[in-house]
């Protein structure tokens, strides 16, 4: 939840009426005080799920933001860790929090890397990409990995139809679509544009072998389904 130390309603409104890049530049100093930061328990469980696939030497945090995921990579990678994002403000905060990592400002739809990484991760960023952009994004990550390298990210179970969480996501996406119809520059952020079945198929077409690992440490819902899982996509050798 938002706290008194986090962004004010006015600050959030200004950010929401900016471009994605400018909005995150403005939000950066208070980003870690918002619900948008990936919770530590999800980061910790992702590390736990990925550890058996190691050891890893080099890691890449795709859309690193303020560096929470990059810090998690430190527990998995023995050598170089790199965070990439297009917001200078977010990278500035990340650099302050994790000075030993390398930070690169770039659009992840055009990553400036050769196949140099054993592991790539991403946390909470996919809502900023339209469905038509995902295949290109996955191809870029594939190209940055060594043969046999892994691209991993957590996915939450979709909320049940009609539940408060479902209605909240539906309402948010509807407001964003209306905003983008009437206001420029656009701000791409949607919660319901990342259907897991389509995403897994797109990863396979990009050249990955894909598996889905339940994150049992985060518990199960009342119907017995897992709350969260880790997508583990391995670049084919």
Report what the structure shows.
With 237 residues, this protein is an alpha/beta fold. The chain has eight helices and seven strands, in the order αααβαβαββαβααββ. Helix 1 (9-16) packs antiparallel against helix 2. The model has no long low-confidence stretch (mean pLDDT 94). This is Methyltransferase domain-containing protein. It comes from Streptomyces pratisoli.
Produce the secondary structure layout.
Blueprint lengths: L8 H8 L3 H8 L12 H11 L8 E4 L5 H6 L7 E5 L2 H10 L4 E4 L11 E5 L12 H11 E12 L7 H19 L13 H10 L2 E7 L13 E8 L2
Parallel strand pairs: 1-2, 1-4, 2-3, 4-5
Antiparallel strand pairs: 5-7, 6-7
Helix pairs in contact: 1-2, 6-8
Rg for CA atoms: 17 Å
Which segments are poorly predicted (pLDDT under 50) over 5 or more consecutive residues?
none
Q: Give the second-level CATH assignment, the architecture.
A: 3-Layer(aba) Sandwich
**CATH superfamily grouping:** Vaccinia Virus protein VP39
**Helix- and strand-based class?**
alpha/beta
Large-scale geometry: globular
- In total, the number of strands is 7
How much helical structure, as a percent, in the residues?
25-40%
N-C termini distance: 43 Å
- Looking across the biggest beta sheet, what order are the strands in? 3-2-1-4-5-7-6
